[in-house]
């Protein structure tokens, strides 16, 4: 996870603007390869992990602005696992998120991530009694009704049964 400004970006670029930025992806890929090796993952050249995310100050009432990558292109919104990682990073003192947000003073905290197609809320439970310990991060997923209908079966189908 990195600050958008460290790449000369605002963090509010659209998916298309980010995908068109070949220099950014080349720089990101070099860091991603080094991160994979440092994590003991070996050569991650052809692997989709580790993933990469950018952070910037929120603009639209959220906690922090984010962009998430898969890794060779920009995610159109936000993956659930990416949201949990980015929200946890945002709350961790000493992380790249320092200075980009006002951290909540209580746990669990609702972290609203602004992303390219809206927002996603992540509930992060942590303990600060002895430093910072992450207990859990999760979110509520909802669905809306897409259709409601009736099937009209002719009575002759049911006759003689």
CATH topology description: Diaminopimelate Epimerase, Chain A, domain 1
Estimate the helix proportion, in percent: 10-25%
CATH class: Alpha Beta
CATH architecture level-2 label: Roll
Q: How many structural domains can be distinguished in the coordinates?
A: 1
**Uncertain runs with pLDDT below 50, 5 residues or more?**
none
Strand order of the largest sheet: 1-2-3-4-5-6
Radius of gyration: 21 Å
The CATH homology group name: Diaminopimelate Epimerase, Chain A, domain 1
The secondary-structure element order is EHHEEHEEEH
The structural class is alpha/beta
Shape: extended
Number of strands: 6
Largest sheet, described in full?
6 strands, mixed
β-strand amount: 15-25%
Map the helices and strands.
Elements: E1 2-3, H1 15-19, H2 22-38, E2 52-57, E3 64-69, H3 80-91, E4 109-115, E5 118-127, E6 133-138, H4 155-158
Parallel strand pairs: 1-2, 3-4
Antiparallel strand pairs: 2-3, 4-5, 5-6
């Amino acid at each position: 996870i990195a600050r958008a400004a460290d790449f000369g970006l605002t963090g509010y670029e659209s998916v298309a603007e980010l995908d068109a930025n070949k220099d950014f992806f080349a720089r990101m890929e070099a860091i991603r390869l080094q991160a994979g090796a440092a994590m003991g993952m070996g050569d991650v050249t052809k692997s989709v992990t580790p993933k990469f995310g950018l952070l910037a100050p929120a603009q639209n009432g959220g906690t922090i602005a984010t962009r998430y990558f898969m890794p060779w292109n920009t995610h159109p919104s936000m993956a659930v696992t990416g949201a949990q990682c980015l929200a946890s990073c945002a709350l961790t003192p000493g992380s790249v998120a320092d200075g980009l947000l006002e951290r909540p003073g209580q746990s669990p905290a609702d972290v609203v991530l602004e992303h390219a197609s809206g927002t996603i809320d992540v509930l992060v439970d942590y303990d600060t009694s002895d430093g910072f310990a992450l207990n859990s991060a999760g979110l509520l997923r909802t669905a809306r009704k897409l259709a409601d209908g009736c099937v009209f079966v002719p009575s002759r189908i049911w006759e003689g049964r």
